[in-house]
Amino acid sequence: MDIVVSAPVSRTRHGAIRPDFVLIGSVTALAALGVLMIFSASVGNVADLGLGSSPDAQRQLVFILAGAVVFAAASLVEERPMRLAAPIAYLAVVALLLLVLTPLGTEVRGAQRWLQLGSFQLQPSELAKPALILALAALLGSDPDEQLPWRRIVQTMAVLLPLAALVAVQPDLGTSIVFLFVTPILLFLAGASLRQLGGILLAGAAGLLVAMQTGFFAFKDYQIARLTAFLDPAADQLTLNYNQLQSKLTIGSGGLFGKGLFEGDQTNLSFVPHQTTDFIFTAVGEQLGFLGAAIVIGLFAVIVWRLLMIAATANSRFGRLFAAGVAGLIAFHVFVNIGMTVGMLPVTGLPLPFMSQGGSSVIAMMAAVGLAHSFRIHRSPVPGERRLL
Amino acid sequence: MRPGYRLLALGAVFIALFSVLTLRLWYLQVTEAATLDQQAENQRIRLVTSPAPRGEIVDRDGVKLAGSRVSLSVVVDRELIDEDSEDEVIQRLAGLLDISAIEVRARFNEARAGSLGSISNDVDADDALYLVDHSEDFPGVRVEAVAVRTYPEGELGAHVIGYIGRPSEQDLETPGVEGADLVGKFGVERSYDVWLRGVPGTTKYRVNAASEILSVVGEEPPRAGGTVQTTTDSELQLALEEALTEGLALARSSQEPWPGACTSENPPEQCAIRASGVVIDPRDGSIVAMGSIPSFDPSIFVGGLTQEEWSVLQDKGAFNNFAIQGSYAPASTFKVVAYSLALEQSMYPQAEEDALALQNHTDDYFCSGRLEFHFQDESQQVFNDWTPAGHGSVDLHEALAASCDLYFWELALRVWRGAEEGIDEGALQDWAEQLGFGSATGIDLPFEQTGLVPDREWFETTQRETPGRVRAEGTWSGGDVMNLVIGQGALTSTPLQLANAYAALVNGGTLWQPRVVSHVINADGEIIFENPAKPLRKLTLDAATVTLLRRDLSLAVNSGSGTARSAFADSRVRSLIGGKTGTAEVIQGDTDATDVDTAWFVGVAPIDDPEYVVAIVIERGGSGGRIAAPTARKVLEKALGLEPGPLVAAEDAD
Fold first, then answer.
1. CA-CA distance, A209 to A218, in Å (whole number)?
2. FRET partner for B195 with CA separation of 20 to 30 A, picked from A20, A97, A242, B288?
3. Is the pLDDT of residue B557 over 90?
């Protein structure tokens, strides 16, 4: 595809493109389902209780609505402002991450990942995810296609490493792994040859070893314990493997059609730890069964597909890279989170996008998808395509 | 690669990831759904068992021999008491239970975190009630009701009743037995444990992840154990145990070098060790009484005894029921076997070598004091009667009453040499085995011994496999059969086997399977298990043999030459009694041991229509006539409705 740096399409001249209702619909469906699932998981026997009895569900609803606003706003941002904002966003996130590590940051269960803003706990690492994608897409987006000079690769590392380091130190292993997944995707899409990818992989491995040897980075005991426990599910059923054991039981007992809304015994009796956050999918699995679970995965697949389509039809390389990056981001989260709930992957603490309880994640994801969406809204119409106005 | 293809590649990767997830979900939610659902269900259900009350044991008149009572104990869960209130609670408890505060504090301290501490076992019902009514004053303190086994009659019948204790590894294999239960370890408690134990109740609770109980989803009340009714009579049991105790003491009093020597920690070799006996009803094989002295009180197992206390009793053999576990040489009491065989087969001894055999049970035989036996290798052995002077001229009947050894030796030799006449050399053994010797009677008590009836085959096997137990060289010989016929040598029998054999002979030929329990009934009085009298076999026994045997047993007690005459001389009911004495030589290996004869007596009453057969053995007690017969006399008199007098030693007689 030739690079066409087109003038921003303004509404007055050509009209904005129709929003991607499939994308919006899927996100809305998942978000709404998420609120419902949080409600079912946070209250004991739900039968006669109203929404008011679950503060968790209420909060999530507020964040969803706020997220909707963020999505709408992000969709309207045009490409050039976005490019300009990229480095600013990056630096802001770095600042927040540094702030988290100071005494201003809140520590929960041995990890210092949050900043308390009034009644809202901000988790900067969640914001770092779209920020990284934005920064890398901007960095790599100005080259011609099918070329990835080595210097770009070095620059990519320079962008990645500070974020990765700050996040790894919290410690937040899950987010670190997200970065390590998303960055190669962007490099790949930007035209990295297999040789270059291979070299990056080696360099990365070498760097990791050096970091571990010098003591700069080491796996925490509990992280290693989690991994070995994961490899032997029969062991530690009451301790390390408890979460995943309960998760599998909960999902499995849902069967084909599920136990029915609010009829899940495991959920009602609080057998799954962190059920409103990391393990929200178990509530889907138990209450809505395989059918419900498949539909959820299907909705995510639709979102990823729509994002890839946005990438394919984007005007610019920047747009293509960003949209595909967001697609990868969501796909990775879905795979790792659900993979963890079904016992295929070790526990990593990655949320399920739009569904897991957590304001920072919702806002960040909405922003990411919204910004990707803007590339569709603002691109030149394909012949025959209708416009919004 | 063009960017379009790269996107495609990416898309393919994502499809693959999502497919893997979907497959895994299918596995969990369809393939393994049932298993996982069941597992999830199981962890939400808690089963709590409530123990079933153990059934009672009663004797044939309903006298309670074993029962249960509820013991209330006070326990404390320290985690439920604030530190500040602890002292107050301790003071109050001390005052209520009448224990010093220091003691209560000590027991508090013994309670480890996470478990309940025991403050006092067996508190009064009033105190317990006060605690419950004023539970606010006693936070963390609870009253627990525990079922405790009681044995109202103490030592009486201990070996028949048995006792209960913690289950062994083997016991745990029985279905329904849990680690915390108590099971029967001995006696009826053990052999009827499954009836006594009842069925524990279960309550199924639904719980949440914090193991908090939400609701009851199922309840099954416990089913109490049934009441086991024995065939024993406690009055006669008491008489038997008293007689055994007195008989043992009497034997010791004449044996001990100084008073109390035999009951000291290291008794001299010549001391009588123990006495056991059994009273069986020859009409149906029911055990009316069975005892073994030294004995024990089954209640000691309830509170738990120290290793020391246990060892003392164990060393004395108090925990063994020698009436069924003691293997003794029956000595002259065994002569009834040859006696009855002789009558049945019309087989009598030869008067002299090369002479004709006696034709008749009334033909006389000269019972001199000694008999020479010639082995095949030209060596010889001299057998001496227990009376060196002999008994003079006797026929079969006098031979039994006076217990002439020679007559029976000659019978043995007749069998031994009887090949030409078609008499099997094992005829005596076969007949003995028919009468139940050498095999377990199958009584419903545990640990019964089988005794031993030796024969050529046994001898040769033992010579090969267990050298030292029999002669190292040589073969099974006539001498061995001569030992056998008078109940010595390798022949052994338990008191029960002997009594049962006598019962079969005097009742006309029915060898019963002895039983101590007649049936088990439930709380409503319905019979849930019957143990009817069961004959082991019917022997071919001529009515004449039975009549003659009864008469001769009576002669042993009443006639001038009877070995038990002296023991029963002044008994008002001696005309109703018959019996046979026995004095077993106990050979102590090669050492020249002190004479340590074991005393036997088997009595039958009323002799014309027997209802009781009593077998008494006093290990190392001396002669049967002197010690065992008077002991049995007390029991027989009681059985016939008399109040027995004191136990007095009689004349020494086999």
1. 9
2. B288
3. yes
* Phi, psi dihedral angles at A60 (to 5 degrees): -60, -40
Give yes or no for residue A11 having a pLDDT over 50.
no
Nearest to B36 among A249, A256, A293 (CB): A249
Which amino acid, residue A161?
Answer: L
Of residues B351 and A100, more confidently modeled: A100
Under an 8 A CB cutoff, do B10 and A249 touch? no
| Dist CA A123 CA A133 (whole Å) | 17
Do residue A146 and residue B208 have CB atoms under 8 angstroms apart? no
pLDDT per residue over B410-432, tens digit each?
Answer: 889 888 888 777 888 889 999 99
Distance of CA B315 to the CA centre of its chain: 17
- Most trustworthy range by pLDDT among A240-244, B268-272, B604-608: B604-608
How many DSSP H helices and E strands does chain B contain?
23, 23
- Mean pLDDT, chain B, rounded, equals 87
Map residue B185 onto helix, strand or coil.
strand
A297 close to B (CB below 8 A): yes
Distance CA B310, CA A211 (A): 68
pLDDT in tens, B282-303: 999 999 999 999 999 999 888 7
| Antiparallel, parallel or unpaired: β B163-165 and B183-186 | antiparallel
Option in A191, A256, A269 nearest B209 (CB): A269
CB atoms within 10 A of CB A30: 20
Size of interface A-B (CB pairs under 8 A): 130
Token pair for A273: 């730890």
The answer to whether A334 and A300 have CB atoms below 8 angstroms apart is yes
ipTM: 0.89
3-state secondary structure of B293: strand
Q: What pLDDT score does B351 carry? A: 64
HSE-CB of A154 using CA atoms within 13 angstroms: 3
Q: How far is B203 from chain A (nearest CA, A)?
A: 20
Tell me the C-alpha distance between B502 and B616, whole Å: 13
Entry pTM: 0.69
Instruction: Please provide residue A327's backbone torsions phi and psi, each rounded to the nearest 5 degrees.
Output: -60, -45
A290 and B39 within 8 Å at the Cβ level: the answer is no
Residues of B with a Cβ under 8 Å from any A Cβ are: 1-4, 6-7, 9-11, 14-15, 17-18, 20-22, 24-26, 28-30, 32-33, 35-37, 39-41, 43-44, 207-210, 214
What are A211-223's pLDDT values in tens digits?
Answer: 777 766 667 777 7
In whole angstroms, give the CA distance from residue A180 to residue A193.
Answer: 18
